[in-house]
Amino acid sequence: MKAARIIEPEKPLVISDVDTPEPKDSEVLVKVKAVGVCHSDLHLWEGGYDTGDGFMKVTDRGVKFPVIPGHEIVGTITEVGGSVQGFSVGDNVLVYPWIGCGNCPACRVGNDNLCDAPRSLGVFQNGGYAEYVLVPHFKFLAKVSGIDLDAAASLACSGLTAYTAIKKANANSQHSIVIFGAGGLGLMGVQIARAITSANIICVDIDDAKLQTAKELGADSVVNSKDADATQKIISLCGGKGADSVIDFVNAPPTVKMGLAVLRKRGNLILVGLFGGSIDLSLVTVPLKAITIQGAYTGSYNDMLELLGLAKRGVINPIISKRYSLSEANAALEDLKARKILGRAVINP
User: Fold this and answer.
1) What is the C-alpha to C-alpha distance for residues 118 and 100, in angstroms, rounded to an integer?
2) Distance of CA 335 to the CA centre of its chain
3) What is the pLDDT of residues 191-213, one digit of tens each?
4) How far apart are CA 154 and CA 94, in angstroms?
5) In percent, how much of the chain has pLDDT > 90?
6) Per-residue CA distances from 11 to 63, 66, 71, 285 (Å)
7) Is the full-model pTM beyond 0.70?
8) CA angle 286, 274, 63 (to 5 degrees)
9) Which residues does the UniProt record annotate as the domain Enoyl reductase (ER) (predicted)?
10) Which domains are present in the chain?
């Protein structure tokens, strides 16, 4: 099969022929119809993350090169192992890529995405930038019907991450939610917030075109963070007391700083993005304001099923703005890095 592999960080992906996997036991072979182009793929390609006080290599987390990236995978089953139940050749499926060890405390309660020793597809084992992908167990599949397959791909990561973050925000309050970032994650977050909360939704970004899209998708108000009075605007839009919940889909020093500034007493700051960096934090304000700072990382398999249900009912509509062939994998990552993609892009192997 054809596959695009990262041979070493910061070098072009190499597109070549590799052996097509053969499924056995509980394994399933899926012909990839679409795979999302995600910022996590960029971090893998770049070799790591900016931690604020250094560079954390993905190899230190257990990544081994070469690897086929791509974790937002949707496709059609072409072969099944002998122990597979409930799935057949020809089924269209969405792949849950956040595969855990199966034994740690998180995995035992169904939170494979928070596993102590993750085995995620497209990160720690070969993913979907290829014509086929081997899924280690059929329990990580969900049947897809009544929704565009390209659009379904993003539900496994960007949509799932946004869904988890909105649920955490909604648990704190339904009055006001401020969303930082109007990229693929943020725009999905706006739609999900509109669908499952009754909150006043304010979206913040530096791009007026993206903010207009956020407004069209359900944001009650939008604010350009480059405006000199952006912080006060956000506080005013939240009734003058500040935001009950802030979701930062960027998670860069400027957005986190503004997020903390607009957070009201008892507020909840949810950090999602992996932009990186660090900030100075006034420690005394955390207890005095009784604020909560927490992270949100993808979501559980059951969360993905709930999200897929929303998509099937047409409540949310993932935006696919660009499509690439497998031979254009490098161009897809370069376009994402250059912020040329509105919503989500997919590769169609």
Assistant:
1) 5
2) 17
3) 999 999 999 999 999 999 999 99
4) 10
5) 90
6) 16, 11, 20, 44
7) yes
8) 125
9) 11-347
10) 2-157+299-347 (3.90.180.10), 159-295 (3.40.50.720)
